[in-house]
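hey so u asked for the seq, here:
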Amino acid sequence: MTHPSPLTRRAFARALFAGSAVSLAALDELNAAIAQKITSLNQKYLDDEAPDGVYWEEIRKLYEFEDRFIMMNNGTLGPMPRSVFNTLTRHFRVQVTNPFDSYNYLPSFRESVREKLATFIGASPDEVALTSNTTEGLNFVINGLDLKAGDEVLMSNLEHPGHTGPWKLKEKRAGIVIKEVPLSATTKSVDEIVGAFAAAVTPKTRIISISHTVFITGLIMPLKELSRLAHDKGLFLLADSAHGIGMLDLDMKALGIDFFASSPYKWLGAPTGVGLLYVRKEAVDKVWPTVVSSGWETNAAASKLDPSGQRSDAMLFALDEALNFNSRIGKSRIERRIKALGSRLKQELAKIPGVKVHTPADPYLSAGLNAFSMGGSLESKLVDYLREKHNLVVRTTGSPQAGTYGVRVSTPIYVSTKEVDLVIEGVRTLLSHKA
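ran it, structure tokens below
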């Protein structure tokens, strides 16, 4: 009985696209043209820091939106650039045309993606686990930490259920104590945040577990300062940063964080089904893996936390291309663009009587998630108004009882001040009708 021999990467690629409606050469040409276009734009508009202009108009064309559709809810799910979708669909074809290479070749690509992802966030490859989403990464850390009855966990009152849920389960199973640190829905200073957590630390506190990107208000928690507080007290710091990657220019070493989970399908442009979990090298041995197969006993890297078993490796090829796409534009340039658009929205909304902006104006404490309220049940009406009149997608979020209910608007790189101004126009229109 003979067995097929493993294909080289070049031979595998030829086999993958043989008979495909879109050939390998065509795919290479499409994605190469996109890469070259970004390179040319960078060279031509190197010093252009304007929030709008030809550069960003051309970047927008690299997405496949329906006619007039405007996605401003990346806080839930963002679009894939055309090159990412090209990559995803072609590698999904493997299971159709050559299932052998679904388990022979595609998984070997995983480590190169891990290395690229680590470089993108300022980490080393042995500090990166490849998960499915933020919630999964948080569960892996929370379930894997050895905490005993009476140990305290500090959390804010602004957390997502995907973050609080795993801790509540841990509380029931292990008898730990969750202490809520109250923060105002309109918290505006680093000192206020750090001071609130510092005051809540006791001899029983073991970890501070917080949102980095607060989904309700758009607040960006000061991780660097909170990490310093945690480590000065001998504590761990875990960050739920569902929106961080692709929105912010991340550097894990500079932040000093212990654990960090994020979802590349919101702002980075990756497909759903891939997630990032960073575990600081010094903390890897403090976390037991949750889903294991063979080899977990000897793995001393964060990859021991990767979910075991067959996975959709086409997602990792698409993640790789999403990292390429963002790196070609530049992480810092992306962050500046997102913050410039967000600042315009907040500044103009603050001028409108009857509007309460929940997101801090300080660019250190805010970025691409922007929340505000209007009162009189106008929030849900604004969501409908913008979709019906402009085909523009935003959403409501938060709780009326907690004083956090409002409209949340994302300002990703492919929108312009025109779309930001459509939101402002919608707010003015509804408030004028209310009056």
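The chain has two domains: 109-325, 332-434. Residues 24-44 form the longest helix (21 residues).
lmk if thats what u needed
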